[in-house]
């Protein structure tokens, strides 16, 4: 498996880490970057993350064997339309986005008459962003979810599975809809909670924040994530998130009732159950 | 400032770290430990954390210049009653508990006719427990809240302030009631949230837990904390916690409504406000 020419659309933390990981393992010839800010692309080229760049996504993608979308999901469809005419026959187009569902079908509709689109999501984000924190080993030991549909070209999918495995990821496949449920629960929902925990302390008394210890810092670390990205995710995964918030609010109401009636046994049972599950996940 | 004889009641993570910190700085002569489990005390003595131990708290505390409660708060009052008759005149009695409020007044009532009680709470916990993770530097750079009342002996309090400063802590004083509000907000409330986030994912679909990334792990790290300790804290800080849960549920309902009506601007505003506040806290 070798990609003579690769295009990374969006050279941020994930896009740049993907480029570095490919280069480190000798899986590609040259990498071309596309992005909105020329200054970032110049920096990425200086650092050897990409070999060249173009401010037009079509030109950047022309002739590439592998094109990866690591742009904000809100610009996927528009960018796909801009590149589709330039794509090389037989190219594989994929992404690294946190949202799948309808987006995968939209990408297929735009692209699949010319090339193979396969959705992918390496679970390796961070509250940080930008190429400064890019890391060739970012995906090692992490899960990468690949989301085939009925239309997905199986050969292209097999190539992509091998690629992510080569980068050290554990590949799991599931439908785009299942992906959005799973990630909604373990990633999207906790981001809303982290943001609102910080806002809740401010509402209670903002001066209290200066007394927070490591527990609060860890619990709310992801509240430093990009507000635009997580706004888009909330809009995208609306139904799942409303359901999960309802489940969570229901549980908080129950705990509140236990506290109100001093039901220590029920509280302990709740906490013990959570501790057992959490201990199993390990710490890193 | 030098304490010829010190008694540590409860040799767990905090008690053992306190003992090590005193020894490291040469602030004490000998340290006697008391606890429920002889095996733990034997281990603590073998590791040089304490110099001797006694399974009776009164005998352990007799003749000591400084007695520190690092036991579960639920046993404070009973243990205070068991030691009060043995305490040396002029001894300073203090604690390291996460709960203050009525407990401080209760301790004063039992102890203050003989010795000076001053409540203290170093904000340096961990989801871990036990002497294995004890650390002489645990309190360095951390806040320690001292909670004087109208009855507090000012000389004893000044000694305690100097002591914690010597251990590297930044000392802040506030009333026991204010302490419980502040810690309820930045520590007790986030523990409930972490436990219930784990339980919520189980309720949604427990199999999803295997897909959690670093964000979820960090957000729920404190759900590995002691269920008994946090059950007791919930019972103790009841009114504040019910208020905080109401504030939080109110905010989640608001966010849910924004998501339901696709109000992207309001969501972004929520998240941006939280990010600004959280970024100020730094990462540690």
Structure write-up:
The structure is a homodimer of 284-residue chains. Chain A folds into 2 domains: 3-174, NAD(P)-binding Rossmann-like Domain (Rossmann fold); 178-281, 6-phosphogluconate dehydrogenase C-terminal like domain (6-phosphogluconate dehydrogenase C-terminal fold), CATH 1.10.3660. Chain A contains 11 helices and 8 strands. The first copy, chain A, has helices at 13-24, 38-46, 57-61, 76-83, 102-111, 154-166, 176-205, 214-219, 227-236, 238-260, 264-281, and strands at 3-9, 28-34, 52-53, 66-69, 92-95, 116-122, 143-147, 170-173. In chain A, strands 3-2-1-4-5-6-7-8 form an 8-stranded mixed sheet, sandwiched between helices. In chain A, strand 5 (92-95), helix 5 and strand 6 (116-122) form a beta-alpha-beta unit. The mean pLDDT of chain A is 95. At the A-B interface, helix 7, helix 8, helix 9, helix 10 and helix 11 of A face helix 7, helix 8, helix 9, helix 10 and helix 11 of B.
């Amino acid at each position: 498996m070798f990609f003579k020419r690769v295009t990374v659309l969006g050279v941020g933390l994930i896009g740049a880490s993907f480029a570095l990981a490919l280069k480190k393992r000798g899986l590609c010839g040259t990498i071309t970057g596309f992005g909105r800010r020329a200054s970032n692309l110049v920096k990425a080229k200086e650092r050897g993350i990409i070999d060249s760049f173009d401010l037009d996504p079509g030109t950047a993608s022309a002739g590439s064997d592998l094109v990866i979308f690591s742009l904000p999901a809100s610009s996927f469809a528009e960018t796909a339309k801009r590149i589709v005419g330039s794509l090389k026959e037989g190219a594989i187009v994929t992404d690294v986005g946190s949202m799948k569902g309808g987006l995968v079908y939209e990408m297929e509709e735009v692209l699949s008459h010319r090339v193979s689109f396969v959705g992918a999501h390496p679970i390796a984000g961070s509250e940080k962003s930008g190429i400064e924190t890019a890391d060739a080993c970012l995906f090692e030991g992490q899960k990468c979810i690949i989301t085939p549909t009925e239309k997905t070209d199986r050969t292209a999918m097999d190539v992509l599975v091998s690629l992510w495995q080569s980068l050290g990821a554990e590949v799991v496949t599931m439908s785009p809809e299942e992906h959005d449920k799973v990630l909604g629960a373990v990633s999207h929902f906790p981001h809303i909670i982290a943001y609102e925990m910080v806002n809740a302390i401010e509402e209670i008394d903002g001066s209290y924040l200066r007394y927070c210890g490591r527990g609060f810092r860890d619990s709310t670390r992801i509240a430093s994530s990009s507000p635009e990205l997580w706004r888009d995710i909330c809009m995208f995964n609306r139904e799942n998130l409303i359901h999960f918030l309802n489940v969570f609010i229901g549980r908080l109401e129950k705990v509140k009732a236990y506290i109100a009636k001093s039901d220590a046994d029920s509280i302990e049972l709740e906490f013990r159950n959570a501790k057992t599950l959490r201990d199993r996940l390990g710490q890193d």
